[in-house]
Recover the amino acids of this structure.
């Protein structure tokens, strides 16, 4: 199978994944192709077309004012672009490698950030991933010099690429069907997958370019439909509330326009005239007494314009002889036009579906800075939601760093899983609530430590207090002890240990007797 791009292959003695009777978890929304004796069939017309329409719908939703405001709060909270604050840093504390290897990884991570231009485009990259629910990038390398690493990371429209996974089913001796991944690749089509794709055959190919798996970085939201073959965006659950809110607002505007003005009702006495002549007489009366003044914006002139009666104008009704004569009355306008409780209800439902605290989206709510005990539960849930988003979004850094380190020979493909589990990322923080919470926790621990001062050495050991009260780990204890010893050598003993206490008087030395 000829693929475009490059593949990172395992060593010959590498351990291959074992087959299983359970299907692989497809959180990336990849399409599964089952191979058989007579080839395979790849249906891109149904699933991909629906997924493309979903992406278009997600992007159209961002034009709504409520959606755009919520997106701005989410992205600003996840990606901090303030001066003096680093957007993201790599954390290698849990990596059991020499400092030389850690320094190489840090340098390569800075190279990855420069390839993404994350300092300037971090906001747009995260917003694009959050809206579409997927973020593909093409890794370009020099085939003549692969050890030079990645040359460029180029964004791909998520509507033009699709991941495909070919599996092979075999029967064991006990007639149990086991599944084994045969190959994985991507299909790219410049025209997209909206229309019916020609060329679908039993060879498992479709019109488009088959790209190697290692040449693409494909970060998804992790949300899929129940079948697992379609990736959802975080905006998916806001589709229904947004449509309901739009429909209600449109109907409310139409009702207010049609019911707001007061209209007159003219009852015209037609006597004993036949129906046809009565209608003609009524039209003559309407034409005679109705002069509609219209302002022409093109010419700037005012003219009389007589047109057919609309629902916003007066009513003319005939009245037969024997009843009351000609009469003019007034039809009152709509009542309770200022009540919008139903609109507010659906608006709050939309805010809840966006995972943003309602207090942030309501314009009349003022931001107050106080103690962390006064923070609402919604703010705490929102902070944890941002942490989950960052953890999922960091996949674009991990995959790019994997390719970069393997191409340059820093690590091998077999060693990478150990590195990947130990590498974490620290994002810039500007959330005052998180800082306030940490400050109060530290204040409470110090206060508890002060209360236990008399019991240390009698009922509790110093080691127990440091682990259970101050919540210091073994590494923290070793680092703090080392820093204390260094401070003693550099600055000497603390002042409280050098100066005597006020209640302690120095003992007078007896004078020597005269000789």
């Amino acid at each position: 199978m000829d693929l475009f791009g490059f593949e990172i292959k395992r060593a010959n003695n590498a351990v291959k994944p074992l087959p299983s009777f359970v299907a692989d978890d497809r959180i990336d929304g990849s399409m599964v192709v089952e191979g058989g004796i007579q080839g395979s069939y790849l249906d891109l017309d149904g699933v991909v077309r629906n997924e493309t329409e979903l992406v278009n719908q997600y992007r159209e939703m961002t034009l709504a004012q409520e959606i755009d405001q919520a997106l701005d709060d989410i992205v600003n909270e996840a990606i901090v672009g303030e001066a003096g604050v680093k957007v993201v840093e790599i954390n290698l504390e849990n990596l059991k490698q020499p400092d030389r290897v850690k320094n190489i990884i840090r340098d390569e991570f800075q190279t990855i950030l420069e390839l993404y231009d994350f300092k300037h485009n971090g906001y747009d990259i995260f917003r694009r991933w959050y809206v579409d629910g997927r973020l593909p990038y093409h890794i370009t390398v020099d085939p003549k010099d692969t050890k030079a690493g990645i040359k460029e990371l180029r964004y791909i429209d998520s509507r033009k690429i699709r991941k495909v996974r070919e599996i092979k089913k075999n029967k064991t001796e006990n007639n149990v069907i086991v599944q084994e991944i045969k190959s994985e690749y991507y299909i790219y089509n410049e025209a997209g997958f909206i229309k019916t794709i020609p060329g679908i055959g039993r060879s498992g190919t479709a019109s488009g370019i088959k790209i190697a798996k290692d040449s693409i970085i494909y970060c998804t939201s992790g949300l899929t439909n129940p079948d697992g073959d379609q990736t959802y965006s975080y905006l998916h659950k806001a589709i229904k509330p947004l449509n309901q809110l739009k429909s209600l607002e449109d109907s409310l505007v139409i009702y207010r326009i049609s019911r707001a003005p007061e209209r007159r009702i003219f009852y015209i006495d037609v006597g004993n005239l036949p129906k046809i002549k009565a209608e003609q007489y009524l039209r003559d009366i309407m034409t005679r007494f109705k002069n509609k003044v219209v302002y022409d914006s093109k010419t700037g002139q005012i003219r009389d314009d007589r047109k057919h009666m609309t629902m916003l104008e007066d009513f003319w009704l005939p009245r037969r002889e024997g009843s009351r004569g000609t009469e003019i009355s007034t039809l009152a306008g709509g009542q309770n036009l200022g009540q919008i409780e139903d609109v507010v209800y659906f608006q709050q439902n939309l805010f809840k579906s966006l995972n943003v605290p309602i207090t942030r989206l309501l314009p009349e709510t003022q931001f107050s800075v106080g103690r962390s005990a006064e923070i609402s539960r919604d703010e705490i849930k929102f902070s944890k939601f941002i942490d989950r988003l960052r953890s999922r979004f960091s996949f674009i850094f991990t995959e790019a760093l994997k390719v970069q380190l393997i191409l340059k020979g820093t690590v091998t493909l077999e060693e990478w899983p150990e590195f990947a589990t130990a590498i974490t990322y620290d994002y810039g923080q500007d959330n005052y609530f998180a800082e306030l919470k940490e400050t109060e926790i530290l204040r409470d621990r110090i206060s508890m430590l002060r209360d236990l001062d008399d019991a240390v050495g009698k009922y509790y050991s110093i080691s127990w207090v440091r682990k259970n009260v101050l919540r210091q780990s073994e590494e923290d204890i070793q680092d703090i002890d080392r820093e204390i010893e260094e401070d003693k050598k550099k600055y000497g003993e603390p002042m409280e240990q050098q100066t005597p206490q006020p209640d302690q008087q120095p003992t007078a030395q007896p004078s020597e007797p005269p000789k």
Q: What stands out?
A: Residues 239-259 form the longest helix (21 residues). Confidence is low (pLDDT under 50) at residues 36-46, 195-206. The CA atoms of residues 359 and 399 lie 37 Å apart. Residues 261-331 form one domain.
